[in-house]
Every structure is written in structure tokens, then in C-alpha cells.
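Minimal example, chain plus erythose-4-phosphate.
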Amino acid sequence: MLTNKPKTKILVDGGDPEETLGIKSLLGFVDGQTTNPSLIAKNPEIQKRLAAGHLLSAQEETDEYKKIVQSISPLVGDAGVSIEVFADLDSRADEMLAQGQEMFTWIPNAYVKYPCTHEGLRAAEMSVQKGIRVNMTLCFSQEQAAAVYAATKGSKEPVYVSPFVGRLDDRGEDGMDLVRNIKKMYERGDGHVHVLAASIRTIDHLLCSFFLGAELATVPNKVLQEWAAADFPMPDHDFTYKAVDAKGKSLKPIAYKDLDLNLPWESFDLAHELTSKGIQKFVADYQSTLRRSA
Ligand code: E4P
């Protein structure tokens, strides 16, 4: 059991209530949970149905997603459960908002996940005005994080932004730098956006997230098990992060940019290849569970 609870809130990155329960007994607590279409497609109940030859209708998939988050909801603390809208590259803000409004009613501690795209940002802007908590996902650039800040200014609830560390590492860039840069940029802000380190692949990612003061980190079961097996190490004051990939090759640093958080959110360049790829991957994983309608 973890006795020295870090300041960074720990969320489970998964889609299986049984797994969340197991992690809760491993750590003694779970602050929150993040889900996404890929993780829901991997849920054991959904996988069982698929293995038995039952593809789901879109409505059944939504119903399953709702059941899953309703089981997870009471297990977690005040960081809530993030539920992701089903969006493709053509999804409009009002369609995402309609889904988000519905999903927000599923559980009392919901955060609605929208992608860091122009339409996702528009949906988020409208959501926070309606009191819907949001988690802006697939964040790969400081510009996107600046836009999240500007679009959600005035939100009464904390807004989450999720920089995806591992996926930047995967293409040779130092994903932890993005977390560092966003934290630095937000020092000049009003604190309404909390940084949620996501796509965490290693104990080092987790420790560096603590060290950088990320408000939250979402962590897959595998990394939490490894952390527990190593007896929950914590970063010390002179912690240094080795920015290398799995083969020991150095990751390319991501330079800090001086961005003005007071600019209108539409003025930031939101384009990032990995955001588009990420949306396409979520669509593909979601589609893989679906029955083709005639
Ligand atoms: C969480 O909100 C993200 O969807 C998740 O961390 C993505 O992780 P991955 O890059 O391992 O898919």
C-alpha cells in the first residue's frame, strides 16, 4: 500500500472496473480514471461478446460504455471519471457537445473528453459555459494547451488538459518536455487548467510527472504494478529524467515557446499530426466493435 501519497493525483488509464478495483487495493486509493474508445473496446465484457461473434450496434456500444463508467464512478476519488466522445475528423462541435451533455449525466463525477482540435475546442468552450467539466485530450503541442486555456477561461470547475507523453516519445521527441513547457506557460495563468500527464509508459514518466508538478497523471495498470513492485519510489530533489527511448536512444528536446495566454484561442495553431492520427485510431478501435448497419 502507498503510504506517502504524491501531490499529483493518480488516475487509472483503463476501461475495466475490475482492474480499477484491483489497483485500489494495491495503492489504497484511486483518485480518478480516464477511459477512451480504444480502452473501452478492450473491456473484457465487450471482448467476450465479440469473441462469441456478437458485434455491437452503436447504441449497444454506448450502453456498454455507460455501464462501465457507472461501475467505475463510485470507486474513484475527486479527480472523476473521464468519458470520451466518439468523434472522427469530420465531427462538428455541436455533435460533440450533444454527446458530451448526455455523457455528463451518466455519473455525478464525469469529465467529458474532447480532442484538441478546432471543433473540440468549440465544444469545450460551450461545455464549460454550461457547467460541464472537460478533459481536453490528444494534446501534443504547447499551442494546443494555450488554446485550451484561452477557450475555457472563466470555467468554475478545473479543466484538464492531457499531454500525451508516450506517443511523442514513440516518434523520438521528448514527451516529458511538453508537460514541462505547459506547466511553465501556465505559471502566468489563473490556474484553472490542470495538467494531466497521459500516455504514461514507464515508471520514469510517472516520477517525472510528479517532479514537474503535474496536477494529475493517468497511468495504465502495467506501470502501476511495476511501481508497486519497486516499492513506490518517489523523485528526490535532484531527480534527473533520462530522456531516452526504450533502446536507450536520446529523445529530441521540445523547445519552450513564449505564448500569450490572453490571445483568442482561435489564433493558436491547433494542427498536429498526432492529434489527427489519434482520432483516426480511436475511430478504428471503436468501429472494430460495431455491427455494420444494413
Ligand atoms: C488518456 O486519457 C489517454 O487516452 C491515454 O493515456 C492514451 O495512452 P496511449 O498513448 O498509451 O494510448
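The chain has a mean pLDDT of 96. The two ends are 51 Å apart (CA to CA).
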